[in-house]
Design a protein that fits this description.
mainly alpha
Length: 93
């Protein structure tokens, strides 16, 4: 098995929805496919088939750590952020 782009598949975007419920409605109506994060898979509509992606096709996501604006981070927050950076570096290598 190979990745979709390597196999010549190029998706065509006909609809764009910022709402996960609307995306699932398009799919249920037979208008296409959508990506559902693993964390949201348990809340997907029962009339949809969830198919895992090939590892080569899994999109990368940016994840941010949110901290209060204008407040100096505590030593514990700084240590936690440093640990997040370290772990994330290990995931991308």
């Amino acid at each position: 098995m190979h990745s979709a782009p390597a196999g010549g598949f190029r998706p065509r975007t006909g609809f764009v929805a910022a709402d996960r419920i609307a995306e699932q409605g398009f799919v249920a109506a037979g208008l296409g496919v959508t990506l559902i994060p693993a964390l949201a898979a348990s809340s997907a509509r029962a009339d949809l088939a969830l198919v895992p992606l090939h590892p080569d096709d899994t999109p990368r996501r940016r994840v941010y750590a949110a901290t209060p604006h204008g407040i100096a981070p505590s030593p514990a927050t700084l240590a936690f952020l440093a640990l997040l950076v370290e772990v994330a570096a290990g995931l991308t290598s």
